[in-house]
Write a structure and sequence with these properties.
Blueprint: E1 5-12, H1 24-39, E2 48-52, H2 60-65, E3 75-78, H3 84-98, E4 103-110, H4 129-138, H5 146-162, H6 166-180, H7 194-199, E5 202-204, E6 207-208, E7 218-226, H8 227-232, E8 239-247, H9 252-255, H10 259-262, H11 265-279, E9 288-290, H12 296-305, H13 314-319, E10 330-331, H14 336-339, H15 344-360, E11 374-381, E12 385-393
Parallel strand pairs: 2-3, 2-4, 9-10, 9-11
Antiparallel strand pairs: 1-7, 4-7, 5-6, 8-12, 11-12
Helix pairs in contact: 3-15, 5-12, 6-12, 11-12
Amino acid sequence: MSRRAVVAGVGMIPFTTPSKSETYDVMGTKAARAALQDAGVEYSAIQQAYAGYVYGDSTCGQAVVYGLGQTGIPVVNVNNNCSTGSTALFLARQAVESGAADIVLAVGFEQMQRGALAMGYTDRPTPFARFNAVMDRIQERDESPFAAQMFGGAGRQYAEKYGTAPETFAKISVKSRKHAANNPFAVFKDAVTVEEVLAAPHIYGPLTRLQCCPPTCGAAAAVIVSDEYARKNGLDGSVVIKAQAMATDFASTFTEQDMTKIVGYDMSKAAAQQVYEASGVSPTDIRVVELHDCFTANELLTYEAIGLTPEGTAEKFINDGDNTYGGRVVTNPSGGLLSKGHPLGATGLAQCAELVWQLRGQAAGRQVDGDPTVALQHNIGLGGAAVVTLYEKVS
């Protein structure tokens, strides 16, 4: 019989640009220590650890965890592109629910380099070969970063189908900066206008530079325990993982001439549907969401993929202000990847931390009104994996 997984503690450090970053081991250890302190447990209590990162040599996870101590526990290194952090969380949750462990640490970190993401190896097949082949049948390539071409192409295809205005995409960046202004962990807090977003250098499709998340460095962590362990040890058991699902690409990604599917629409939709079905929670019950806004185009697409608004209605959803404070659901109160930053291995656990703070009522100037009792997280990685997690506040 499965047990309920409790998020007993979360921690993160302020994200920063590569030129100002500490090394990955320092960042990861700091975030993990903050999560342990938040949970009120010693590292010696941890029975397993899952460490997520993308850009680093093998066993970087051990280097981070050894900064807390050397207790002989299993340390599993996780790499799932941009969904790496939430994949580490997925594994930690499984370990606790299955009874394999009572208390587990999930930590994600990334020390990134300046510039656009690039492939690490050129002497072997890229895992994006199938994706690139489909993309090449749909659109022309240029010199812009490959991820921007994928997500920008998806945004352009969506806009052509539904008549979405460029200003609609730009409004997402404006909202992102407004939210980040209240987040001490975010990198970019200065306000921008729609006009400034549109006037920034053009990248691809509807995307300008201010609609693309920058390379950033940082770390975040969570301590996951069983509900029984929390009760026995007097830990905060007020936030639980009510449901969680991971999906990968379907055949539709490669058989249909659709850029939105190339960037994960179908796997995001499938993971969200699994979570709603498993939890009995409807998208209309959700008041706060942290979703994967690596580009404004993906935030817009994700509104529909995870059911926040019906297909083809994202523009009205944005223009009506239903994606921010005072609207139906606050999306990315942290500022999201666009403004908080996107250290790949840390992102999923940073989303977790934000939503736990929201459910505890600890988000200060970002706090969503109405005392939300459920919160939704969406994190994707091209190549591909989508992880959707539903958190619940319990008495």
